[in-house]
Design brief:
This protein has 338 residues and is α/β, with parallel strands linked by helices. The chain has one domain: 3-Layer(aba) Sandwich (Rossmann fold). The protein is built from 9 helices and 12 strands. The strands form 3 sheets. A 7-stranded mixed β-sheet has the order 3-4-8-10-9-11-12. The radius of gyration is 22 Å and the shape is globular. It comes from Panagrolaimus sp. PS1159. This is Carboxylesterase type B domain-containing protein.
Length: 338
Amino acid sequence: MRCIFLIFVLKLFLQNIFCEDSDPIVETIYGSVEGFNYKMESGENAEIFLGLPFAAPPIENLRFEKPQEVQKWNETLKAKEFPPACATFDTFMGHQENEDCLYLNIFKPKHSNPNGYPILFFVYGGGFLIGDTKTYGYKNISDNLVSQGIIVVTIQYRLGPFGFFSTGDSRLPGNYGLWDSLEALKFVNKIIDKFNGDKSRITIAGTSAGSAIVSLLGLSEEGYNLFSQILPMSGSAFSQWGSKNAVVEVTNEVVDEIGCERNSTKIKECLKEKSVSEFQKVLKPKVLFTLRDDISLLSIGPKMDGDFVKVNCLKKATKNAPKRPTFIGVCSQESIMS
């Protein structure tokens, strides 16, 4: 009898160890997702989910188009590696890059909260030209934020020519990186409750270019009901570089050099046929941190188009938007070199 009891206790002990260390699996409306555990400095575990697709891959015929909703997946998605950086004018910090890059990451406390956890939806900066989520990792985010009872979501959006090229008209409207960010926010609203998140408490935050993006999200009618407050740091849509029409001039110059006709009605079709390397060959010498009067580092970015933000005046758009708690961060010598 004693042996049977000891075997029973040992079985329970081993089951507890297995359950504690097993990789977390979450069922969403798109399919199941398997992440992994990270033991934080606090001694508690965070659950990490990397590389969740929030939109269809913006490749081939979907290049230079608004993001399309991601399709459901049948098998459990192994969400254990950061996604590749979005392709841009050059490789970023040696990180793998790809046009198929519309993914996000979720970092959450392991223990459940009956009231749900607040969410920090973070958009990286980088002049609309560089950046990825891998740069931020998951350890510091978990140790500093998840440990405080916050779910953190980091997203990727199309960069450089693939995210913001525009002819200023319906042929190539631009702002694809903005639409990516909005699609990611919609996706989070659909699935975050399965991660024990409270979607009524989503703070959208960003730094530099990411700050301009979240402030524009706050002015987009489609984003009005998708978040509760805004945290822009080191920039906003009102920054000189936050939204400007210079991208049209840049686009036309590159279109000429890459071998397309700037006045053609099929300019988008022509650009879709060009390879990433062809774009990089033309762009790299122009924007790689040059101080020439060629193309400014910050000439590629969002443009007021009357679509993402329905009015072309930022002040009017701000007046029309719902009032939300907003905390703006700046540095004492902000933008002294820009």
